[in-house]
Amino acid sequence: MIFENTLEFAKNLDSQDQLHKYQDEFIFPQVNGKKVIYFTGNSLGLQPKRTKTYVDEVMNDWANLAVEGHFYSEKPWWDYHERFANPLSKIVGALPSEVTVMNTLTVNLHLLMVSFYRPTKTRYKIICEEKAFPSDQYMFQSQVHFHSRNFGIKPEDAIVEIKRREGEHNIRLEDVLAKIEEVGDELALVLIGGVNYYTGQVFDMKTITAAGHKAGAYVGWDLAHAAGNVKLELHDWNVDFAAWCSYKYMNSGPGNASGCFIHEKHHNNSELPRFAGWWGHNKERRFKMEQTFDPIHGADGWQISNLPVLSLAPYLASVHMFDEIGMDALIQKRDAITSYLEFILHEIDKEVDSTFEIITPSSPSERASQLSVLLHGEGRSLFDYLMKNGVITDWREPNVIRLAPVPLYTSFIDMYNFGQILKNGILE
Question: 81-306: what fold?
């Protein structure tokens, strides 16, 4: 499509957008009496209006039924999480038995590493990407320290980072594959962020997973920035495990519950260690209070504690919205609006003295709902100007703004208006 940097053209794109109506499903903050242009769904998604209904339902059941709500509410609490299985499996490309919800993201990654990071004296290394999200880095370091008393391994020896080439912003696939082959028989685990939080690069998860398995390692993915944003086929890609937060692209509320994937090939493996808890025990026998753990068949068998239903309610509201729309429609809009934003940035770049360098890959297959932009010649004052003028975006030192045009609630008019505000902020 040949784009134009005009309000009329943006309006025309919105008129053709099948998802445009979903903007009205969300509550927007306001600045100067107008709803904001919201670019930070990669940090915290907006609140869907339907969320309150789901939360109120739980609150009313608690008020009217108290403990009996576990069994007699409209959505009984003891199996509330099971309502996620079908819709969530479609979002991440899994079988319903391969997904569950519990805890929060880093907690779940730690628990999954109990099962899938099993170092030996000769096979103990973890491959991750350079500048992984700090929480992942801390997790890797602490996991290695946890095992160090048995094998004497140290983080600097066990953790292998795949580097960007000098002068480049993104990691090349061939470098990932070469590093996996190089580490070879020493490789225990590949665990990478499916979408890099800083650059917005989407990794080739299918190819990397196959390479990790060829080397004899387990392969998992941190999908914090990928779930609800990228077309995933976790089952078909033969991924061993994955986890994601729900509060970014899936709009479930700050710090909310995490989703997990464990491939069905591991469900019957009694040799695979896990930290057990009451809620992962055989559902039909759970209230017999037996001493011996008998795990539920499937990902639910990795659950530990009674689920926080009040936290799950907003997530369920969002998952149902995703089920209405489908990932294919979301990705079609995502690619179109991200491309239009890219065009707008290049057009504004021609009109100002500053230079915009988009460090996110230009290929749609290597990016999703995020463009990370280096603002050469600009500093924090431009970010402050954008925020004061109703553009909610994200600043990363030294001079990068991350822009996430989430297809559920951003419009093509938003992209055009952002360009005009950005230009004014530079020219002032």
Answer: Aspartate Aminotransferase; domain 2 (3.40.640)
